Amino acid sequence: MACADDFNTDYDETFTFECPARQMLSSIFSTHSNYYEDRRFKFGCTSAPNDALSTTCRWSNWVNQFERSIDYICPPEWALTGVYSYHSRINEDRRMNFKCCQINAYKLADCEMTPYLNDFDDDMNYRVPQGQVLVGWFSFHDDFTEDRRHKMMACSLRQ
């Protein structure tokens, strides 16, 4: 379990998290609070091998409405490098935007979706496998638990 000070975000707060230039998301830890009916997140970043990540980046538009699914994949040959989100106390849910950066001199291959990484009201702890890059984030909302289950998509880098 991460310490409270380790989190990049807080309950009920808007947040923007961006990896440093030429780095990509490498881990996501999240815990849910029934009191706040929200999640807070701790993100980790790592450098892409051989400077594979460019500084050409873009933010998505909103990828979900409140209480609706998130089904997001970066454009082809781009990797996830940031997350923007705000929480609604009325809907007890978050809307999300994602930042992706272009990959240089590599192609993505062997993309795989994880199984669900958490149960409702439980922690999520995901580390991108060695040699892969995170390219997609998927989740669905449950009104009873006021929480989301999440899964990710990662791909291998091929020259």
Question: How is this structure best summarized?
Answer:
This protein is mainly β and 159 residues long. It contains no helices and eleven strands. The relative contact order is 0.24.
Describe this structure in words.
With 159 residues, the protein is mainly β. It has one domain. The protein has no helices and eleven strands. It has strands at 15-18, 23-33, 38-47, 53-59, 70-73, 78-88, 93-103, 107-113, 124-127, 132-142, 147-158. A four-stranded antiparallel sheet has the order 1-6-7-4, with no helix packed on it. A four-stranded antiparallel sheet has the order 5-10-11-8, with no helix packed on it. A hairpin with a 4-residue loop joins strand 10 and strand 11. It is elongated. Pfam families: DERM.
Provide the structure class: mainly beta
Shape: elongated
Q: Between the first and last Cα atoms, what is the distance in angstroms?
A: 37 Å
How many individual helices?
A: 0
Number of strands: 11
**What does the average pLDDT come to?**
95
User: What is the H/E order?
Assistant: EEEEEEEEEEE
Low-confidence stretches: none
| Overall domain count | 1
Radius of gyration: 15 Å
Q: Work out the oligomeric state of the chains in this entry.
A: single chain
- Beta fraction of the residues? over 45%
Helix content: under 10%
How are the strands of the largest sheet arranged?
1-6-7-4
Largest sheet, in brief, is: 4 strands, antiparallel
